[in-house]
């Protein structure tokens, strides 16, 4: 390939001639120019001109070849440039198309995601509706079952009421016959004798009222007596009458009220008369009676526990009182206490008289604030059912307060260090340390769970007997 300098010159010359062949003559001004051009020359001049013409011819040929090569090269480059531009344009179009496709795919993805979300929400809503319908179905089935059970219970209740009424009538007749044949140690009084001593059940002779019926004061066989009369509308009255006669007629204990006699035909019970009435009346000073000294209160507590232990150790089966409260503790003129009103008492087998297993009763009996919570809830009766009642009553003996919430008040007073404030203020000289020990024992007796309550014979009675001796020593040295 020619050198760049020569090539450029030749290309310029070729371009000159090739582009404007006529230009070689355009500069002529006259025929003299042609003559001058072709004027005769010397030999030397002719030879040089010939050589020059040969060189020019060669140069023209070389320049023509170089021009063709450059044109071919230019054409090739232009073709490559065109192809490159076409490829670039095609790539741009592909990029635009790909971008558009990507946008469409993204939009499709968003739409598909939205449709999937809507579908999932719809599916979840459908499942929730299905679950709701199932729940409604179950509720309807349960309601139908409950209605059926209620109907069955109501039918059983009606049958039970009918049987109960019939059984009470039969029991009343049997009780009269049994009491007539039974060799229980009590005297039978006629209704005429009862009416005479009570002045025909005059209100002036009435000294009290209980769930069983009214109580009248009288005098039989030259002895003051208390006569309890069964009300005609008393629930299970004849059963209580029979139970009380059987228990008190066969049992004798210094801390159990003495049954002197009865009038079975009219449900009248005749007891020894207790001059100081009930412990409840004396604690709350009914009739403005003087307060009971703390020494006597400790004595009363020990005697109540003694009488209760006698019931729990009854043979052949333990006896549970079920209604132990201050209103059923009677006091004589010397403040000797006696447990009364055993009409609700129940005999339980010795094997189930402990706090672990209890005898099951169909319904709880007793006075609300004194009823064992476990017995009230489950109907399971045991000797420790009486221990709860005893605990509440023991707290009343030192506080002279109503039973409602009493255990809570005493516990809070002990925790806050204000125990002395909760003691009965009518007693000025409480032995605080011993009273505190007494209160803690009482709270243990009133534990909600039977298994947490102490044993009457081995724990409660020994401690109360110790406090009784302390009180008696204080009275003797006073």
UniProtKB/TrEMBL annotation:
Keyword Ribosomal protein: no
Record's compositionally biased regions (Polar residues): 1-11, 23-33
Top-level taxonomic group: Eukaryota
Catalytic activity entry: L-seryl-[protein] + ATP = O-phospho-L-seryl-[protein] + ADP + H(+); L-threonyl-[protein] + ATP = O-phospho-L-threonyl-[protein] + ADP + H(+); S-ubiquitinyl-[E2 ubiquitin-conjugating enzyme]-L-cysteine + [acceptor protein]-L-lysine = [E2 ubiquitin-conjugating enzyme]-L-cysteine + N(6)-ubiquitinyl-[acceptor protein]-L-lysine
Coiled-coil regions listed: 143-173
Spans annotated as Disordered: 1-37
Keyword Transcription regulation: no
PROSITE patterns, alphabetized: PROTEIN_KINASE_DOM, PROTEIN_KINASE_ST
Gene Ontology MF terms in the entry: ATP binding; protein serine/threonine kinase activity; ubiquitin protein ligase activity
Keywords: ATP-binding, Coiled coil, Kinase, Nucleotide-binding, Serine/threonine-protein kinase, Transferase, Ubl conjugation pathway
Any Pfam family: Pkinase
Ranges where the Protein kinase domain occurs: 201-464
InterPro entries in the cross-refs: Kinase-like_dom_sf, Prot_kinase_dom, Ser/Thr_kinase_AS, U-box_ubiquitin_ligases
Name this polypeptide is given: Kinase
């Amino acid at each position: 390939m020619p050198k760049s300098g020569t090539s450029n010159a030749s290309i310029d010359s070729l371009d000159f001639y090739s582009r404007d062949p006529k230009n070689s003559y355009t500069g002529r001004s006259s025929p003299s120019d042609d003559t001058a051009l072709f004027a005769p020359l010397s030999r030397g001049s002719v030879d040089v001109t010939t050589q020059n013409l040969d060189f020019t011819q060669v140069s023209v040929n070389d320049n023509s070849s170089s021009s063709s090569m450059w044109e071919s090269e230019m054409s090739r480059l232009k073709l490559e440039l065109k192809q490159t531009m076409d490829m670039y344009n095609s790539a741009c179009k592909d990029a635009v198309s790909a971008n558009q496709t990507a946008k469409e795919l993204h939009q499709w993805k968003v739409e598909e995601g939205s449709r999937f979300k809507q579908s999932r929400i719809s599916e979840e809503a459908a499942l929730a509706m299905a679950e709701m319908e199932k729940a409604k179905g179950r509720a309807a089935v349960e309601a139908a079952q409950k209605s059926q059970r209620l109907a069955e219970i109501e039918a059983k209740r009606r049958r039970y009421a009918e049987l109960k009424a019939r059984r009470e009538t039969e029991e009343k007749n049997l009780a009269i016959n049994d009491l007539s044949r039974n060799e229980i140690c009590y005297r039978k009084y006629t209704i005429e004798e009862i009416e005479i001593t009570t002045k025909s059940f005059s209100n002036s002779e009435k000294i009290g009222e209980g769930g069983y019926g009214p109580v009248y004061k009288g005098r039989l066989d030259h002895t003051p007596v208390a006569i309890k009369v069964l009300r005609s509308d008393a629930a299970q009255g004849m059963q209580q009458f029979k139970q009380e006669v059987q228990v008190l007629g066969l049992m004798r204990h210094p801390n159990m009220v003495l049954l002197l006699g009865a009038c079975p035909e009219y449900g009248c019970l005749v007891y020894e008369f207790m001059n100081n009435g009930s412990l409840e009346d004396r604690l709350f000073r009914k009739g403005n009676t003087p307060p009971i000294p703390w020494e006597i209160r400790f004595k009363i507590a020990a005697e109540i526990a003694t009488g209760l232990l006698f019931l729990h150790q009854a043979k052949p089966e333990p006896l549970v009182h079920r209604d132990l409260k201050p209103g059923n503790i009677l006091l004589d003129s010397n403040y000797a206490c006696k447990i009364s009103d055993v009409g609700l008492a129940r005999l339980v087998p010795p094997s189930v008289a402990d706090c672990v297993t209890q005898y099951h009763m169909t319904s709880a009996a007793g006075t609300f604030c004194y009823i064992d919570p476990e017995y009230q809830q489950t109907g399971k009766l045991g000797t420790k059912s009486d221990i709860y009642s005893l605990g509440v009553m023991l707290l009343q003996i030192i506080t002279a307060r109503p039973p409602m919430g009493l255990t809570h008040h005493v516990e809070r007073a002990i925790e806050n260090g204000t125990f002395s404030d909760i003691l009965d203020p009518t007693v000025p000289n409480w032995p605080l340390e011993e009273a505190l020990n007494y209160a803690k024992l009482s709270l243990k007796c009133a534990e909600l769970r039977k298994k947490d309550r102490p044993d009457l014979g081995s724990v409660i009675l020994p401690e109360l007997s110790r406090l009784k001796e302390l009180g008696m020593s204080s009275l003797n040295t006073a």
